[in-house]
Amino acid sequence: MSDKKTAFDKQLVNDLAQILNETDLTEIEVEQGDMRIRVSREPAPQAFAHAAMPAPAAAAPAHPAATPSVTPEPAAAPAASHENAVPAPMVGTAYLAPAPESDPFVKVGANVTEGETLLIIEAMKVMNQIAAPRTGTVTDILIEDGEPVEFGQPLLVIQ
Domain residues for 58? Predict the structure, then answer.
């Protein structure tokens, strides 16, 4: 008899790895009851509009195929290192304006109210409006328009 915490469906992991390879995704996660399975791979190098990208703290060797792994639920992302920063609620591409030729939603020095749109994060072809979590003044914008952002990354500061 196998232990419930270590038993998992190897075929499911292989199927998830296959989906990663077929769709060029870098990560996929499935939850079944108390079991959470996440399969991830390091993305192939891509040319981004912004040359300066933060390097990962501990870079793993690049693997062309997905490497299946069963991991415990990840710890919560660390709080934004900037005091009063608004963190990214998802991974995606951040846009500071509703359209390329439009004015940005907010600028440094702008007064914002709770619920007001600050920017948009595109994730899986869906444009997600990111609202101000509180009323205040935008004192710093920490990202560039069109920049890829990670979950928990500080986007802008509201004092």
Answer: 7-74
The CATH number for 128's domain is: 2.40.50.100
Separation of alpha carbons 42 and 20, rounded Å: 11
Mean pLDDT of 61-81: 48
> Is the whole-model pTM more than 0.85?
no
Mean pLDDT rounded to a whole number for the chain = 76
CB 152 within 8 A of CB 88: yes
pLDDT for 36 equals 74
d(CA 159, CA 140): 9
Closest CA relative to residue 64, chosen from 90, 82, 36, 42:
42
Q: Is residue 79 part of a domain?
A: no
Quote the percentage of the chain above a pLDDT of 70: 67
> Same domain, yes or no, for 69 and 90?
no
122/65 same-domain check: no
Those residues whose C-beta lies under 8 Å from the C-beta of residue 158, and which sit 6 or more positions away, are 84, 86, 112, 132, 133, 134, 136, 137, 138, 139
